[in-house]
Amino acid sequence: MKRDVSAHLEVAVSASADLEFQITVARAPGLAIDESLTFALDGEPVDPIEIVGPHGTRIHRLAVGSGTLVADYSATVLGNARPQPATDYDLALYLRPSRYAESDKLHTFATAEFGDGSPAEQVAAIRAWVARRLRYAAGVSRHTDGAVDTLLAGSGVCRDFTHLTVALLRAVKVPARLVAAYAPGCWPMDFHAVAEAHVDGAWQVLDASGLAPRSTLVRIATGRDAADTAFLDNHGGEIYVNAMWVKAFVEGMLPLDDHTSPAVLH
Question: Residue 166: phi, psi to the nearest 5?
């Protein structure tokens, strides 16, 4: 499968800052990635430091002064990533509550609603329940909202759908994590967030929002929740994103996805 992805960000920096971007395709066995990544501050090139994280995640860190920073990334991705087995550390880490997936607060609720059945049945039931329970609505949630806030609000964007899915899965003792991805077919087009649940010995990808076919997704970053996978993090001066666009295309016809069959992220 061939997928073409790209991102463009223009960030106003008010004072010296250390910025971290997670916008590049994660490296994985089976994928061939032809990519270009550039950063420029007021037109002058800036060289980032690449930090390699788990699951092929790459962070690009820059120390910059005040000005307008422009980030441009494009990649052609060929092939399908080979699924990687979960380590014992993965299975321990992705059962724990986290900043935006407060599974400890949802334990009683999740056990009452989804406590019966096999792990595979629980995974299917939670995805379907979140899809029914939430309404997709841009601009209604805050960047500080976690799974409990989303459950009470009943609406949100893809990261909110994913945080609630992940928290409920962990609450019934199914290891779960968040994946930031490029998503051909997603509308509105943006960086996308989906969940992965470890069931039947493999990581199955779940998208309760149903915004994009799972077979086209391209992994960017993987972590406990959006705190680990944010496309931009700031350690220093005040910043403001003046402009941003994301594009993702797949060669040929966009595949159909009923979002009920088990699937892995390639």
Answer: -65, -45
Mean pLDDT of 73-100: 96
Cα 242 to chain centroid, rounded:
22
Rounded to an integer, what distance in angstroms lies between the CA atom of residue 92 and that of residue 87? 9
Distances (CA, A) of 127 to 133, 143, 154, 159: 10, 22, 15, 14
Q: Which CA distances in Å does 256 have to 121, 158, 163, 208, 235? A: 23, 19, 24, 15, 41
Tokens of 241: 């994103």
In terms of pTM, does the model score above 0.90? yes
State how far the Cα of 175 lies from the Cα of 92, in Å rounded to an integer.
8
73 has which bridge partners?
7, 37
Question: What is d(CA 87, CA 172) in angstroms, rounded to the nearest whole number?
Answer: 20
Handedness of CA 212, 218, 221, 223 (dihedral sign): positive
Q: Could you tell me the sign of the dihedral formed by the alpha carbons of 155, 156, 158, 163, in that order?
A: negative
19-48 pLDDT, tens digit per residue, is: 999 999 999 999 999 999 999 999 999 999
